[in-house]
Protein 1
Amino acid sequence: MNPMKVLLRNPRRELEVSGHRRVNSLLDELALNRESHLVIRNGTLVPGDADIADDDTVEIRPVISGGS
Amino acid sequence: MVASGSKCRVCRGPAIIDLPRHNANFCAEHFLELCRRQVTKAIEHFAMFEPGDRILVAVSGGKDSLAVWDLLIDLGYQADGLYIGLGIGDYSEASAVYAREFATARGLRLVEVSLREEYGYDIPTASRATRRVPSSSCGLSKRHLIDKAAIDGGYDVVVTGHNLDDEAAVLFGNKLRWEIEYLARQLPVLPARDGFPRKVKPLVRLTERETAAWCVVRGIDYLVEECPMAAGNKHLAYKAALNAIEADSPGSKASFYLNFIERMAPLLAAERAVGVESVGTCRECGAPTTGEVCAFCRLVEKAGAHERVPVELVVGRWGKR
């Protein structure tokens, strides 16, 4: 089993995280607001209570734009 | 604790998104239905436009403008796009690619205007030349060029991708300072007047998490990276504050903005009437203006005469104001 790959944006960076957890738990661990992010697991959008685990590739995509 | 593998509220199939403000989860199909319904409700409730109207969508290559363009076409409206090249280094080059690829893949018409090529300046240079935050010259340039493209092209209405978060953040800022004149004008529809085109915001009932999700589900590639010149601006700080409230009290952003529109905006009608100044035409370009020369032509003259400034020299300069 390989650790989960977690892609973060703005700035773009990648983390490796081991072990099973819920999407919302990962956002909490990274201190990211659920209202400001989408989570895409292996290319598919998933809700906050979805399970993520080793071998998954997870993109945490910020949705906040700065213009007005 | 919510059980893993949450279900769609409508069909009980596997959910792809949780929307706490609706206290519900949705599968892809029914999430898209929800978005269509919210946009249709905004268009109809605020009488934004009619089927058959010629629509010009201001397109940046980001999630909101591509989502609203896609939604309008999906709902059967006729809409062209307008992309303005702002000259913000790699960011602008990448955003243009997303806008072009979206239009080309769907056979849609995208009109392009380049600030540097057609007006001799870009936003980093304008910011330095005017000694103002970049969003000042950026907003002025976009408003002028969008208005001009809409009038010249004979469009009935301009659509922008402002979403619920954008509107709530602007409302929050205006309320913090009790900017009554701005509050009076903060409506999802600005009627055409004195040579200005009609402008509408069909996404005011969708959060930006929802517009981003629309793009992901529909397979729309958009520029995820933030504008390098936006970092640290007040608008982002207001959004963060509102999202902190939303996390504790889902639905707060929607009630804050939509109840303002329903309950408070009518009380400001008299203020809107007071705010209308008599408008003439710009001596240089013929655009509507209250002065002899419009603000855009003054900016072109000032920024066009300034030595070109690379974006790297301007980024971060305004972040801590």
Protein 2
Amino acid sequence: MENQQRNISTWQLTSILISTMIGVGILTIPRTSTTDIHQMGWLGTITGGMIAAIAIASIVYLGKQFPGTTYVDYIPKVFGHRVGTVLSYPIILLFIFFQFINAGMAARGFGEVVVTSVLQDTPLEAILITLFIMVLFLCCHEVEVVARVNELLIPFILVPVFLIPLASFMNADWYNLLPFHIDSWKEVGKTSLHTFSVFTGYELLMFYFAFAMPGAKLGIAGGTGLGYTIAAYFLTVVAGISVFGHEELQRLIWPTLELVKTTQQSGWFLERLESAFLAIWVASVFTTIGNMYYAMIFSLRLWFRQGIRFQRISALVITVPLYYFALMPQNIVELFSYTKKMTKFGYFPTIVIPILLALIQWIRVKLGSRRENSKKGGT
Amino acid sequence: MAKSVRCFIRLIVCLIPIILVTGCWDRRELEERTSVLAIAIDRAETNREHYQLTVQIPIPIKIAGSSGKGGGSNSDAVKIMSVTGRTVSDAANNLQMRLNQRLFLGHTRVLAISEDIAKQGIQDIMDNFRREPQIRRLMWPIIVKGKASTLLEIKPELAQIPVVFLMDLVENGSKMGTIPDQTLGDYFNQTSNKTMEPFMNLVEASKKDVTWKGIGVFRGHKMIGQLDREQTWSLLQLRNEKKGGDIIIPLPNTEDGYVTFRPHFVKKKLHIDKAKANSSGASSFVATYHCELQGDIVELTENMKVSPEKFILQMQALIKKEMESRAKKMLQPLQKQYNSDILKLGLTLRALHYRDYWETHNWKEDFRDFPIRVVYTIKLRRLGMEMQ
């Protein structure tokens, strides 16, 4: 295995985590989290985040156990040489496939928002192609560039994501958030699993942790990143419920966008905030899709043990199926049903596998059977 | 390596025009749009099933200050056009056929609906406004007595564009606390919310000007009645802690004496208490609004001939009595006649008494019989520039 550059700092890891998680989901989360548990929808963001927290903790543990190696390399090590190599293929494939569909659906969601709300006469294809070209450009570089792009764009995501809910509290009616009670815990569980989908993207840490500087604090990066994201989603949902009420939220297709539209008050320095919001949001979607696609391509490169050239060519080639995949849902209803299916499929690569891997590794360590002590080096 | 980079640069150069071109599908210069400032919806005169859509379009060149010519009489600064159609969007399409540029609703600030249509229900009209992304949730929906188009045809003279005049009227009114700040978004939220009913501002327009008359009370999507100014002000005090207008009360024991009280600060507290179970056992909750008004006396047309200390007490008692009777006059039709909770009382009930009240009651029906008490506390602070 070629020696990876390890130069991503803790803050860069945090920004990668935040900007990957915050993407298209933030526009729909006030609706999706309140569908079943109504005014208590904000609870879903916390419980959903808790599920993600367990998975992130597992990934951090794995990252510490195998510093400098990505999941592509450490999965065989976890399972042991022979079994691991065989077992790792379907897992890596699953992981890569999940990144592929997640990136595709995120791109499609982004395109839908732009087409329904601002550029109504622009073909969806044009928006997707533009986005993919940008992503493709990103994929032609080393990981360091991805880290720097994320670091550069993170202020554009951090600030408005907090500012918008806080500003919209001006026309909030707090009684919309009450009564504080839960009808059935089953619904809460359902909502958490559903809301969990907005956190997907953290599983990329299985990949990006490998490039962390020696001494970078993985736990802190994972913790702050997740904490921030939970807070952002929580605030957005609270703002959505308190401004619109949970009944109205069910009727809004992009509730957060409507929130931005109603937030402007006379006397605000900016009227028509939604154009600014959309412009900023492009950055957030770009980093989401870019990070996912990049991780996917780079995983392929590592898997096939190739160089940057392979990465560039495969990035270009795979954009074509990605583009067609993004165009597969024929209408907005189908898109939402696709994302629902994707969420269910996503439990496997994002929750089950990291936790399972961490568990097995933990048991291995406990049993004292450390067969591999070398930090790098292939199977 | 170098070769692939060069190849890549070539690729990028080819792709840049494609990226730049994407902006053009929706490119629309400002002068290529016909901005509509206000929309009025009436029933068509020829066919009662159809809608008549009237729009007000500003003419940029005629607006004073925009170019050398400008000025002139204000009626010229806008163009008013009427079309009919089976639905709102059908009418809008018919309107488009008569315009040289594309219609743009992003600047629309007022949606006027005739009382006649409001009374028959406006769900079908609102659907288009909900779907259209250009429509702002912050625009003002207004019910107009008589024909809605009269609101767009006013010539206020004080402002060049009639709609701007109307907007300022509503905006300043809501700043002063006399007119409810009821936007289209609020209307949407209130129709969806199971705990409350919507309302809209109600105005009457004549040739020259427009008067705010109160609010139209809805139940579901149908307007079922109205509250006049004084009733609306009571509502505003209890619902939004807005101060409402001046309160003019005839002085008792005088021939033609009046006192005018101007509230400056309003504080409201809503208590929902469990009353002692009465004999029937049902409906054991009582809502009590405690409302505190602080304000001044701004007019007193007859000398009361009492000591200042006594005068203050007398006036406070008089205003308290008047305000409580006004609140009653507001609640009476709202509960018994319209059975429409625009007070947001249901929201509070659901929030605070979900288990013990909300689950077992159907608020849409039970609002009618819910006991509501209003207690005012008047704090008369100053008497203006006079000593008494």
